[in-house]
Amino acid sequence: MIIFISITPASMTKYVKKSELQNDWYEIDAKGVVVGRLATIISKIIRGKNKSTYTPHMDNGDFVVVKNIEQIKFTGQKFQNKKYYKHTGYPGGIKETTPEKLHLSKPEEVLKLAVKRMLPGGPLGKKQLTKLKIYKGSDHPHSAQSPKIIEVSKLNSKNIARV
Questions:
Q1: How do residues 79-100 score in pLDDT, each as one tens digit?
Q2: What is the rounded CA–CA span in Å between residue 124 and residue 39?
Q3: pTM of the model
Q4: Please, what sign has the CA dihedral across residues 157, 112, 78, 71?
Q5: What H or E segment, with its residue span, contains residue 45?
Q6: Residue 162's CB: how many other CB atoms inside 10 A?
Q7: Distance from the CA of 160 to the CA of which of 19, 32, 66, 104 falls in 20 to 30 A?
Q8: pLDDT at 95
Q9: All domains of the chain, ordered by start, with CATH?
Q10: Please, what sign has the CA dihedral across residues 129, 37, 80, 90?
Q11: Residue among 100, 89, 129, 101 at smallest CA distance from 113
């Protein structure tokens, strides 16, 4: 016996088309904020998981502007003891650095690495990472987009590092 099941349009999942995408801008002040907690918030926004129209295979995320990146914090002794590794591709070519050393030369790279590792690996993840804009100081050139301000300290009290 063969049973046919009819699928009505109401029971099908609706995917957003490329022409229907709407990208917003968000601004986050990183002053005193813990790196990992900030990276999770940013990665959700960049991937579009904060929207009801989230589609895993499409770039449906929003733009995020992070300012005051030089005042970002780590908890515990991670600032001195955590290690970042990269390999040159040659034998014996493994290089290591700490957030402390990386922060002296390129402070924005610490947050960018944390967010990059929370995104999918591949062309979609690389495209989504371009929506992250990181700046030293409180000025940025994206004020014309009138970004919505996200106060990370008010989302959870653990987001701010205690000294």
A1: 999 999 999 999 999 999 999 9
A2: 18
A3: 0.87
A4: negative
A5: helix 35-47
A6: 9
A7: 104
A8: 96
A9: 23-75+108-159 (3.90.1180.10)
A10: negative
A11: 129
